[in-house]
Amino acid sequence: MAKETKKLSDSGNSENDKILIVEDDKYTRLIIEKLLTKNNYQVFSATNGQEALDIINNKNPKVIIADWNMPVLNGLDLCKTVKGNAQFKTIYFILFTAKISLDDRVKGLDAGADDFLIKPTENEELLARVRTGIRVVNLQNELTKTEHDRALVEMACTMGHKISNPLNSLSFSLKALEDKLSSKQLKQLDEELNIAKLSIEKINKLVNELIRLEKPEMVDYNSDTKMIKLD
Binning pLDDT at 50, 70 and 90, where does residue 229 land? Predict the structure, then answer.
């Protein structure tokens, strides 16, 4: 049965640093749980790969430590499944195994494993590899956010310039129309002309915000959609 062990961070590790242990041996699983919890990680555990998939879908851990040999779904097949999923492929996957042959290591790497822990392992080595995994995932997330933000800025700037050209034409056309109208006609169309001018001003403000966007911030538009915050 899947299990969760929590401890809030009071040192260097973030409460959001979630680690999933997938190990069918109760004693080994308990030792790793206690070690990671003591070091302020949020720990989840499963006894096989199938249980692990449910936890991954709900908790999205940063690091998975999975035994190679398990019932139902072994660590190697779990690794292939995780790394084959676009949503979870950046999870740092550590295969925990007594297999040390070159052929086994190649199989693990081909499955997408990021690292190996050879049984039995020292506590400090396990913690060091977990810290490495978290650093790698954090760097990947930062890079993804940077690329995402840059794409948003480029898109916003492009849209701003694309809107600006027809907006300028509209503004000039409205001014030319006003010049051609008589005083009586201007008075009759005063409300409509003011609405048109106000709309042009609002669109022009939007154009300037799009062009000058530097640090895009996403806000909720509705339950399923986000939008760029501009004001």
Answer: confident
